[in-house]
TrEMBL record:
Membrane disposition: Peripheral membrane protein
Short name of one Pfam family: GPP34
GO biological process terms held by the UniProt record: Golgi organization; Golgi to plasma membrane protein transport; Golgi vesicle budding; retrograde vesicle-mediated transport, Golgi to endoplasmic reticulum
Molecular function per GO: phosphatidylinositol-4-phosphate binding
Species of the source: Malassezia brasiliensis
Disordered as annotated region, ranges: 1-23, 298-329
InterPro entries in the record: GPP34-like, GPP34-like_sf
Record GO cellular component, one term: cytosol
Extent of Polar residues compositional bias: 10-19
Family, as annotated: Belongs to the GOLPH3/VPS74 family.
Stated name of the protein: Vacuolar protein sorting-associated protein 74
Amino acid sequence: MSMDDETDTHPVSETLNSRARSDVIEMGSGSGSVAAVDLKSGHRVAYDPRDLNDERETLTNPRLNLMEEILLLGLKDRQGYLSFWNENISYALRGCILIELALRDRIRVTKHAENKLSDPADRIIEVRSTKHTGEPLLDETLRLIKANSQASIVGWMDLLSGETWNVMKLNLQLKQVRERIAKGLVDKGVLRTEKRNFLLFDMPTHPLADPSQKDAVLRRLYALLTSRSQSVHPDEFYKEDPGNVGLRVTRTLCMVCCAYCANVLENTLTHLSSDMGEQVFRRVGSLLSTFGQWPMAPETPGGGIPRKAASRPTAAVGSGSSKKRKAQPIGVGDAELAQAMCQEMETNSNEAAFEVVAGVLNVFVRMDALV
């Protein structure tokens, strides 16, 4: 993905100061983090929970969004920067943004009949709600989708990445995405900001300040991919978050698939044997193919996601399934995942949002096929 964040290497503070030097200041803390603060509102620029002002939504969304989880998995803990050879992460992060907006009920697949005839990646999306999320990167994307003509899921991922031949659409590219996500993690106390010399230049880096947050992401990843039990236990996910986080299984599956496509999954598996690591990679590739279609996981009992009208769940989530299935050496089973995600979708009444998730995963399937 060649038209990655060309200017991601520059400090966010420089961009902010060039835009509104008199309105933004930088404030440091004893932990080494530096946050840009808007003097008019007193709120942090990259992330400030007061921008949302919705207690219910704050409690049902996790502390870290999907983009932050992926960046955190890719960052070197002590050095505080991504691998220079990672060419996939920027494009994958655009997909994470669309998934996050869908899971927060901000965008959905349109109800046009022709949408149902196309691949999930080619389906048109629209804004469902313009309510602010409190995350500037998400809100900026929401404004872009709302203000411009409708496009498909893969179309928006290309536009947000700057991968278009239409020069009139280049202004839709999101700039400095990785650095802005990192600054949001600094504001949340997960990372800190340092200056590091690379050859002749001083560059901002973001070493890990709160290891517990990355450990929590890793626990969810391992629970899904290396479990010896095929059953899924939603309550085991996001236990560290103070609120009642919704869509726990769906979010965890998305995180795993996005990490795979962003080429940061390998960083998390270094402690595993080579054979186990290969099994995990094959398993994630299988999950991507199974859930990167619509309906998702159609071969599972009940017809996948969404469930067929005549089907009913045969077992409670977490109890496993009594039906015979193909032998699966590690990880939660497809049937259990599909059943848990069906329950989450039906509880939240957001089928069109799940269709967006399937569309983004379908784009990732295409990417994987090209490698």
